[in-house]
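Lab meeting, item 3. Inverse folding demo.
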């Protein structure tokens, strides 16, 4: 397993009540063996490296995702022709389109 901070700046150790808060915010998808909360990339704020870690997303797709921001819903990645449906099907359960706070 890659060190959490190496790719995802959003990864951090998460225990106790913190774990509950992370879950409520939709930031936990899985717990690793050392109890690290998996980061859920927000397509409106994720870095290129965070996006490229998703299956089927490379340099070109990550650049198109970033250029097409903001998104109200994650399925806009397909409706705006940012990524193909097949790629979206692979990542749709792993991303969220939460709007950044202004």
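The presenter then showed the designed sequence:
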């Amino acid at each position: 397993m890659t060190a959490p901070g190496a790719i995802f700046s959003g990864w951090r150790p998460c225990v106790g009540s913190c774990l509950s808060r992370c879950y409520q915010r939709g930031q936990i998808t899985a717990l690793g063996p050392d109890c690290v909360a998996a980061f859920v990339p927000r397509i409106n704020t994720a870095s290129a490296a965070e996006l490229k870690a998703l299956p089927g997303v490379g340099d070109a797709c990550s650049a198109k995702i970033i250029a097409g921001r903001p998104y109200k819903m994650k399925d806009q990645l397909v409706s705006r022709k940012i990524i193909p449906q097949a790629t979206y099907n692979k990542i749709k359960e792993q991303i969220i389109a939460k709007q950044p706070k202004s």
